[in-house]
Amino acid sequence: MEVKARAPGKIILSGEHAVVHGSTAVAASIDLYTYVTLRFPTPSDDDDTLKLQLKDMALEFLWPISRIKDALSGLGCPDSSTPTSCSIEATKTLAALVEEQNIPEAKIGLASGVSAFLWLYTSIQGYKPATVVVTSELPLGSGLGSSAAFCVALSAALLAFSDSVKIDLNHQGWLLFAEDELDLLNKWAFEGEKIIHGRPSGIDNTVSTYGNMIKFRSGSLTRIKSNLPLKMLITNTKVGRNTKALVASVSERTLRHPDAMNFVFSAVDSISEELSSIIQSPVGDDLSVTQIEEKVEELMEMNQGLLQCMGVSHASIETVLRTTLKYKLASKLTGAGGGGCVLTLLPNRTIVDKVTSELESSGFQCFTAGIGGNGVEIYLGGGSS
Ligand SMILES: Nc1ncnc2c1ncn2[C@@H]1O[C@H](COP(=O)(O)OP(=O)(O)OP(=O)(O)O)[C@@H](O)[C@H]1O
Ligand SMILES: C[C@@](O)(CCO)CC(=O)[O-]
Ligand SMILES: [Mg+2]
Question: Is 204 a residue of the active site?
Fold first, then answer.
């Protein structure tokens, strides 16, 4: 029995960090995916282990099922229909199970992802032997929602073979979940994100689950549709960072300067609201494509200024901003900042070659991605597409 799931990464057009503090944000899925394959052994395989293979990193983790059962079965019964938070006690137990695997020091950031895997696996599937294989087209820890895509794809594969979801086993090709199943899947993925991020807003797992473009505030989403084909250049500064630490640093600044930071968050809220209405406005009578693009550019610049205020920009991000400005292009960081990826709006008229080669000569990596496609999908029955 085998199922493959894929979940997209995302860009945040406006509102990262402020969204953790109750402001509106706007995000869209991108056509770069994390893939999770789940395979249960047959009795003749005589395999009583749980294996997690992170193919891109050539890493394999393996636990005897008896070891996992001994460690976790006292902490509650698996129930795929009820997304459950990982308690402090369970967090410690998972950390011990991960530590036994001796993750190389240079890749220790993966430990939280492996803990999230163990939590989602045992909560949804219980104590069954299986092999789970993960690959990703997303750079990890770069602001494109790799942690959420991982949790969403994992939840999809695990739920596909649970009592909580009814899937058509005869379906050929990629298959979408029903709306109520997506709601359950999204809640499970959020529990995984909590293990990786500490205090996520839920925007990343939500946009990876439902796809398209969304406006998100305080846990609820509104689907939106851009009236112009938004083209974004994504520049990866390749400066590593960790979303959990950056989110915590903004919360600490908020504790030190609550009044000032609340004005910042409220300004971001207005920017996101304006951005969402401007991209949905009809092109033609009142506003031309160029006028809409100019407004989006200005809002992106304003959002970037406020992200600097929150303390999450970085010298490498500033280099990208300066370079793109030379070509009269507007940019902002996307995701948690502190390095990672920067978005640059590419208006209709733009020729990208010059700006791209100048950015790449600084050691950055540039690419474009399709924006606003499907959210999570599964593929049944061995092989792949
Ligand atoms: N394919 C994967 N396999 C295993 N772990 C993963 C994978 N993708 C992400 N993770 C986990 O998520 C962590 C990166 O998450 P983090 O939230 O810091 O960055 P991001 O999600 O890429 O960016 P952002 O949250 O700003 O969009 C990794 O260190 C790892 O623990
Ligand atoms: C920085 C943040 O706002 C977005 C990370 O992609 C964190 C979150 O919303 O969970
Ligand atoms: Mg993340």
Answer: yes
CA distance linking residue 7 with residue 176, whole number of Å: 11
Residue nearest to atom 14 of ligand 1 (CA): 141
Q: Which atom of ligand 2 is nearest to the CA of 312?
A: 1
Within the chain, which residue ranges are assigned CATH 3.30.70.890? 226-368
Whether domain 226-368 has CATH 3.30.70.890: the reply is: yes
| Separation between Cα atoms, residue 33 and residue 208, nearest integer Å | 9
Between CA 344 and CA 331 the distance in angstroms is 4
Distance CA 385, CA 374 (A): 16
Task: Assess contact for 198 and 244: CB atoms under 8 A.
Answer: yes
The closest-lying atom of ligand 1 relative to the alpha carbon of residue 57 is 3
> Of 45, 204, 259, 286, which one is the catalytic site residue?
204
Whether domain 2-222+372-380 has CATH 3.30.230.10: yes
What is the per-residue pLDDT across 245-293, written as a single tens digit (0 to 9) for each? 999 999 999 999 999 999 999 999 999 999 999 999 998 878 899 999 9
Q: Which of 197, 217, 313 to mutate to test the pocket of ligand 2 (most atoms within 8 A of CB)?
A: 197
Whether residue 30 contacts residue 343, with contact meaning beta carbons closer than 8 Å, is answered with no
Q: Are 190 and 203 in contact (CB under 8 A)?
A: no
Nearest ligand 1 atom to alpha carbon 335: 26
pTM: 0.97
